[in-house]
Design a protein that fits this description.
Layout (H helix, E strand, L loop, with lengths): L3 H8 L3 H8 L7 H13 L6 H8 L4 E6 L5 H16 L3 E6 L4 H11 L6 E4 L3 H5 L4 H8 L4 E4 L9 E5 L1 H14 L6 E5 L5 H16 L5 E4 L6 H11 L5 E4 L4 H11 L9 E6 L12 E4 L2 H17 L7 E4 L2 E3 L6
Length: about 325
């Protein structure tokens, strides 16, 4: 492996000059930089990351802790994180909590020993249900920056990138009431206990309250019986004329169950779900979605965290990435 010392000897300049040239220092002339770059590329020079870490006390690595990657939203956020990190010359280490408080805690402990410069994370379901966040606060207290996205803990002071959960569902519900004249709107949720689920439910309730309509909420605890519960509800509540799903799967399931009961969509039943860019391809008719712009959330999370890592005086922020109601064949 070619070293800085070898580059310096071949170019007949100092090791310090080579180092500064490779780091694009203003102290080095453009001609010298060009000579250094060309030789480094010719000899396939690769920086010694361990040596750089010892010198700068930075790993140029971000720890990413996700509840799951089977949810397309988190997979797309991860895509955005990886893309933005790579363009900023950062690496990422990804850990999955699998919705477990214990695994989330162990991931933070594992990577906060000097392996990463900071964390990007969405809080595990169990952590939110148990209202346990001391392990996250401990990391921040040890001067390791943490950025939360989507699922956040309001009590922890850190950078956050969130979706306008309340407003997006409020506007979707209002659309069904005012534009489609729906009066019996069912909200389907399997994330009722999470921070995002609570905000989305509040948005739904607010829109109904303003229209003097009664809320109807179907809470789903077990993924295994989602189809049966939605089917039975629609069978027993024939007046239901619209459904809002506040997660990424039950909206598509609702379309399938409604069709099984012989309902015409959207004539008899309008359906809006949460989703990503290609969610509409998962159902027939194509489902209308609240598009969360997951890729942009990932990109913004990296940008904000790196700013925190590099700035002498970083002001903590909460950035709201606006959602977009994208209408398709499941609404009129």
């Amino acid at each position: 492996m070619t070293t800085l010392k070898e580059l310096a000897k071949l170019l007949n300049i100092s090791v310090s000059t080579v180092s500064k040239a490779l780091n694009d220092s203003h102290e080095i002339s453009e001609n010298t930089k060009k000579r250094v770059y060309e030789l480094a590329e010719k000899l396939n020079y690769k920086p010694n990351r361990i040596a750089q870490q010892l010198k700068t006390n930075k790993t140029k690595t971000i720890g990413v802790i996700l509840p799951t990657v089977t949810n397309p939203f988190f997979a797309e956020v991860l895509h955005g994180i990886e893309t933005a990190a790579t363009s900023s010359d950062y690496d990422i280490i990804v850990c999955l909590s699998n919705e477990s408080l214990g695994k989330e805690l162990r991931s933070l402990e594992l990577l906060s020993n000097g392996s990463v410069d900071g964390f990007i994370m969405a809080v595990a379901r169990e952590s939110q249900v148990e209202e346990e966040s001391g392990h996250i606060k401990s990391v921040i207290d040890n001067k390791i920056p943490v950025l939360m996205f989507d699922r956040v803990v309001n009590e922890i002071i850190c950078d956050k990138v969130i979706v306008d959960d309340f407003q997006s569902v409020y506007e979707a519900t209002e659309y069904l009431i005012k534009k489609e004249k729906r009066k019996n709107i069912l909200l389907v949720s399997n994330i009722e206990e999470l921070s995002v689920g609570k905000l989305r439910t509040k948005g739904y309730r607010k829109a109904l309250e303003e229209a003097n309509l009664q809320p109807n909420i179907l809470k789903l605890d077990n993924v295994e019986d989602v189809e049966d519960k939605i089917y039975e509800y629609l069978k027993d509540n024939g007046k239901t004329d619209a459904i809002i799903s506040i997660d990424h799967i039950t909206g598509v399931i609702a379309i399938n169950m409604a069709k099984k009961l012989g309902k015409s969509i959207p004539r008899d039943l309008s359906v809006i779900g949460f989703g990503y860019e290609h969610t509409h391809l998962l159902s027939s008719p194509k489902i209308s979605i609240i598009h969360q712009k997951a890729f942009e959330i990932g990109e913004m999370s990296v940008t904000l965290l790196i700013d925190n890592l590099n700035a002498e005086n970083h002001t903590l922020q909460t950035i709201v990435v606006p959602s977009e109601l994208k209408l398709s064949e499941s609404t009129i």
